[in-house]
Amino acid sequence: MNSETGTIYMQPPPKLENSIYEIRLEMWRRGGTFVQDLSRCFGSADLENQSKLIAAFPEIIERYDAFATVTKRQQQELIQREQEGDDE
């Protein structure tokens, strides 16, 4: 924030690997109270306001986007193992 003008500088929005829905699930599952409340905000927000939330909290969004990627990978590996077990 520029103390002379009162302007708040925001970072450009992060490039996301997962949908907002998948990120919200991870925020709800793994986050503390603030992050869970932010997840609820995403659920109530239209696309314009979701963009504002992403711009306002890029570090949080990037963190839970990464969690969503890990969860998705783990789910794919589990499905693959189950399919390999069915082939035997």
Produce the secondary structure layout:
Blueprint: H1 20-30, H2 33-44, H3 47-56, H4 58-87
How would you summarize what this structure contains?
The protein is mainly alpha-helical.
Could you describe the 3D structure shown?
The structure is a single chain. The protein is an all-alpha fold and 88 residues long. It has one domain (20-87). Helix content is 72%, strand content 0%. The chain has 4 helices and no strands. It has helices at 20-30, 33-44, 47-56, 58-87. The N and C termini lie far apart (61 Å).
- How far is the N terminus from the C terminus? 61 Å
Name the average pLDDT: 87
Shape: elongated
Approximate helicity band? over 70%
Instruction: Look at the helices and sheets and give the structural class.
Output: mainly alpha
Topology as a string of helices (H) and strands (E): HHHH
* Domain module tally: 1
Outline the low-pLDDT stretches. none
Beta-strand share of residues = under 5%
